[in-house]
Specification:
Blueprint (H helix, E strand, L loop, with lengths): L3 E3 L11 E7 L5 H15 L4 E7 L4 H14 L3 E4 L8 H9 L4 E4 L13 E4 L2 H15 L6 E7 L5 H16 L3 E8 L4 H14 L5 E4 L2 H14 L10 E6 L2 H8 L5 E4 L5 H12 L7 E3 L4 E2 L6 H6 L3
Parallel strand pairs: 2-3, 2-4, 4-5, 5-6, 6-12, 7-8, 7-9, 9-10, 10-11
Antiparallel strand pairs: 1-3, 11-13
Bound molecules: beta-D-galactofuranose.
């Protein structure tokens, strides 16, 4: 199966393993790589589980194909990190009709009936955006116009929807804040570099970059460098970025990025705990948020960054 990664070969044993089919968004960002690592390390080291992950390469139709294969394979549970929120009703109904439990992780799905899945575990994306807006309000004065360039992730993904909503809500609260443009970066460095390079050919009046993930920020930084636009501490443009990967934290410590909003990918162990509770017949909450914080340069040092897992 394309993109399929069996992490444990079925051994000839009479005690049946608990088989998990996992449809992962893709490998578009450092965050995603860390999330996949957390999931595979959690389950592939446990003889109780067989863990089959399929990489959707950021295409929802690949996820639908994977989920339908998992149904045919008769897995014990299906894990989905949905590319986008819309379009899941039919295939989740098929899974429900097959009697297979589903956990939605990372982003969310927009369905009429949340009984189609056991729980949704991931970040409070709206909360992340609010933390960024609160920080920007403290960093700017009310008597000057603040021109915000907004780099958006995959349109329709919960992370994009909610980080965008938080910014747009904050702009309504601050009459001197202006979103000068919203560029589509699809959560990747390459796409962000491309759209930023084009944008900077005609525009340079930017006070803040609000970038919905670190990899897009890295692409934007490259474009800024080539356009001779300074950023970070003492620079022209304040940079706000989401994920707080090691590379972003390094830039933040060095004063190149002003705010890193953490988006925690390391929730493999929490998912395993939720599955265990389900298997024990325990009630599990419909929504589980992971813990995360924000970082400025003053919060960071070499030792702290070296100890980070992603
Ligand atoms: C957030 C996750 C987002 C990250 C991006 O939980 O869905 O997708 O912020 C990733 O880096 O591509």
């Amino acid at each position: 199966m394309p993109g399929c990664m069996k992490t444990s070969d079925p051994e000839p044993t009479d005690n049946k393993k608990f088989v998990i089919g996992f449809s992962q968004v893709g490998s578009e960002s450092d965050w995603r790589i860390a999330n996949t690592k957390s999931m595979t390390e959690t389950f592939s080291n446990d003889p109780e589980y067989e863990f089959v992950m399929e990489n959707a390469r950021q295409k929802q139709e690949n996820q639908f194909a994977s989920v339908r294969r998992f149904i045919l394979d008769g897995v014990d549970l299906i894990l989905i990190a949905p590319t986008v929120e819309e379009g899941w009703q039919t295939v989740l109904q098929e899974v429900h009709d097959a009697g297979i439990p589903v956990i939605i992780m990372d982003r969310s799905v927009a369905v009429w009936d949340n009984n189609l899945y056991l729980t949704n575990i991931g970040s409070n994306f709206l909360g992340q955006g609010k933390k960024a807006a609160d920080w920007l309000a403290k960093e700017t004065s009310d008597d000057e116009q603040v021109n915000i360039l907004h780099l958006q992730g995959t349109i329709g993904a919960t992370a994009q929807i909610m980080r965008t909503k938080a910014l747009e809500d904050a702009v309504k609260e601050h009459s001197n804040w202006v979103i000068s443009s919203q560029l589509y970066g699809d959560f990747t460095e390459a796409k962000a570099y491309e759209v930023m390079t084009d944008y900077l050919k005609e525009n340079s009046d930017i006070d803040v970059l609000y970038s919905e993930n670190d990899n897009m920020t890295f692409g934007a930084m490259r474009a800024f460098d080539e356009a001779g636009i300074t950023y970070g501490k003492g620079g022209r443009v304040k940079i706000i970025t989401f994920d707080a990967t090691k590379e972003a934290l390094q830039y933040c410590m060095d004063g190149k990025v002003d705010l890193c909003v953490e988006c925690n990918p390391l929730f493999g162990p929490q998912i395993k705990e939720l599955i265990q509770q389900y298997r024990n017949g325990e009630q599990i909450p419909k929504q589980v948020y992971v813990d995360e914080q924000v970082f400025e340069s003053k919060d960071l040092d070499r030792d702290f960054i070296d100890k980070r897992e992603y």
